[in-house]
Amino acid sequence: MSERDSDGAVGTFLDELDPTVFGIGFVIAVLVVAAFLFWESRTLEFMEGTNEFLWTSFGWAYLVSMFALVAFVLYLILGPWGNIKLGEEDEDPEFSFLAYFAMLYSAGIAAGIVFWGPAEAIFHYSSPSPFSGVEAESTAAAVSALQYTFFHWGLSAWSAYVIVAIPIAYFVYRRDAPMRISTIIGPIVGFDNLDSPWAKLVDILAVFATIGGIATTLGLVGNQFLVGLEYAGGVAFGDAGTVLVITGFTVAFTVSVALGVERGIRRISYFNMGLFAVLTGAAFILGPTVYIMTVGTQALGAYVNEFISMSLYMGAGETGGQGADAGFVGAWTVFYWAWWFSWAPFVGLFIARISRGRTVRQVAATGVVASTAVTIPWFATMGGTSIFMQSNGQADILGTLEAWGFEEAVAGYPLFEALPAGEVLTALFLVLVTTFFVTSADSSTLALGMLTTGGKQKPSTINRVIWGSLMGALASLLMVAGGTSALQQAAIIAGGPFAIITLLAVGVMIWVFGSRRAVFLREEDRSTTTTGPATTDDD
């Protein structure tokens, strides 16, 4: 290749690629898109069969894996390894705490919180979990509904991200390892062998998981945007229009960011958080404030008190062995856990990137405890308001859901419409959905670009446009073909394999951190008294 070619856009794109990881990931994405285009019914049948097999036969594995991650994160916060530095001992954090938390939260929460905020609790209120054993649409069902919503979006949701981030950050900033998922297994295969087949396999699994997670997120939020246009403005799109709009938006936003609007995207992220806070505050003040506090407080107490039981609940006692009400567990808890696993490669890399100079305890506490503390008020407010309005006849949210074929994306619009200044709040909610879609499209294509270039932090425009086109097409085809159900199935199928990598990350941290004498206030090298992976540490 000539120097001139290598300096061009195509040359830059070709030079940056990890051919194996990009090639396999690209082929997988293209094959799935083609399958939905030419063999839609057979593809859906295959997904449904695979999904049912996973949550009936391996649902327990998703639950046990996530519970183990939560337990280990709590140990990192409270135990002696929490003071281990992700960087040099005298190195200050790269970002202030406020900036660090804002970036971490924006990356980890994605747009799912907007989609499910008004919807999940009202579903649990109408059809309670068998775990709670309460009567549908009762006062007890309201508490149980918020309790399970907190469970699905609380400590567990954030733990997988932190578990991936910490070992990567440690090896990148202490051992000059590359910023890639396969860095996790560096102590096992050797940091000079991160181009080995085992390392490639880890990176390929990360790409596979991320494809499923991205398609789920873009499909859900894109559908919520389209439903909002139809609900508020009567603008309806057919199947072809849905594919064109979601794919076109994804590519357009990807191109705009890739061409250098980084400051704009950062501002959009701040705007998202600000509008998110405004909508939460408006619904809390204009809505049933006392009810939100009363039911939300009791639900929070139940969540804390019954966390272990909920984490391991499969409902086996309900049906004599095949699984719980496997329908509820599979449709909700297993789906969510798989979704978090599928987003762990990207979010973990991003958290690792911004965590230089922080301690293990700071990353774990910020990523799990602080993020949960910010998330719970949103769901308490949105869910509590939805349930109160439904039970008091102020808004027929369940009736609207039924009229729309139980399309979860519509739940937020009648909620805001029923509040004072409803038209303004509905418009702001639609704006928030749109801007979250922008940031999701940008961050997701950036993630796949990083994963397929060996950790390059600024992949080329061509790389990101390719992934934007494929992910937009896949998300819209999943939405058209099978709706939310197909998106959930995609997340469960894609997220499962990466759960193994998160458990491997725990094992690596135990091995590496166990070779350090770390106490709550300091950290010391034990290389003179132990023979473990830390004996070659570069301190």
Topology of helices and strands:
Elements: H1 3-7, H2 9-16, H3 19-38, H4 40-57, H5 59-78, H6 97-109, H7 112-116, H8 120-126, H9 139-153, H10 155-175, H11 186-189, H12 197-233, H13 239-258, H14 262-286, H15 289-305, H16 307-311, H17 316-319, H18 326-354, H19 360-391, H20 397-403, H21 412-418, H22 422-451, H23 461-513, E1 516-519, E2 522-525
Antiparallel strand pairs: 1-2
Helix pairs in contact: 3-4, 3-12, 3-23, 4-23, 5-10, 5-18, 5-19, 5-23, 6-18, 8-9, 8-19, 9-15, 9-19, 10-18, 10-19, 10-23, 12-13, 12-18, 12-22, 12-23, 13-22, 13-23, 14-19, 14-22, 15-19, 18-22, 18-23, 21-22, 22-23
Give the overall silhouette.
globular
List segments where confidence is low: pLDDT < 50 over at least 5 consecutive residues: 1-6, 319-325, 526-539
Give the helices and strands as they follow along the chain: HHHHHHHHHHHHHHHHHHHHHHHEE
Strand content: under 5%
| Gyration radius, in Å | 23 Å
Q: Helix tally?
A: 23
- Average pLDDT across residues? 81
Name the structural class.
mainly alpha
Instruction: Please state how the strands of the largest beta sheet are arranged side by side.
Output: 1-2
Distance between the termini: 42 Å
| Helix-residue proportion | over 70%
Can you characterise this structure?
By secondary structure, the protein is mainly alpha-helical. It is 75% helix and 1% strand. The protein has 23 helices and 2 strands. The protein has helices at 3-7, 9-16, 19-38, 40-57, 59-78, 97-109, 112-116, 120-126, 139-153, 155-175, 186-189, 197-233, 239-258, 262-286, 289-305, 307-311, 316-319, 326-354, 360-391, 397-403, 412-418, 422-451, 461-513, and strands spanning 516-519, 522-525. Strands 1-2 form a two-stranded antiparallel ribbon. α5 (59-78) packs across α10, α10 packs across α23 and α22 packs across α23 (461-513).
